[in-house]
Amino acid sequence: MPELLSPDRASPVELVEITRANLREYLRLKVSPAQEHLVAPVGVSIAQAHFHPEAWFRGIAAGGTAVGFAMLEDWSQCSESAPEDWWREPFVGLWRFLIDQRYQKLGFGARAMRLLIDHARVRPGTKAMLLSFVPGEGSPEGFYRRFGFEPTGEVSEGEHVMKLVF
To answer: Is 2 part of a structural domain of the chain?
Structure first.
């Protein structure tokens, strides 16, 4: 297998299926120690996804290199079992999102977020995308606001909820 070059700001970003062939690359991704309390590790997320039919996860690749991970909860088709405290209409929720500490501040997260929003927009009947975040120092609130997410005033399990209406 040819060795991949380290991605740079110009590298194309894509959401890729995590398979047996690339799983280890994605399991190695880590946020900085100061961010560890903000998001669960990739391995925990993948394990949870296998017990939640609404989970949809993808690796974030830049120039073919694993740089991040995203997991959505897609309630567009199974809204009858969606958590009642979130939203009354079908929605897609951003459940997990991380960019490895080595690849932060290169624009990969922003481009991946646009891809995730585009994916959520086309889900049948979906009216909004929701997410929650841990408040405090290092919180991603400002990042999410750049994409039009607004606070709902709700708090779920200690995390502040935001939504983007389509």
So the answer is: no
Q: What is the pLDDT of residue 80?
A: 52
Q: Count other Cβ atoms within 10 Å, centred on residue 118.
A: 10
Instruction: Print the domain residue range for 84.
Output: 13-165
Which CATH number does the domain housing residue 69 bear? 3.40.630.30
pLDDT tens-digit series, residues 102-151:
999 999 999 999 999 999 999 988 999 999 999 988 889 999 999 999 99
> Two tokens at 103?
């690849």
pTM exceeds 0.70, yes or no: yes
CA–CA distance, 117 with 112 (Å, rounded to integer): 9
Residue 3 counted as domain residue: no
The number of domains in the chain is 1
- 3 state SS of 134: coil
pLDDT class for 76, splitting at 50, 70, 90? confident
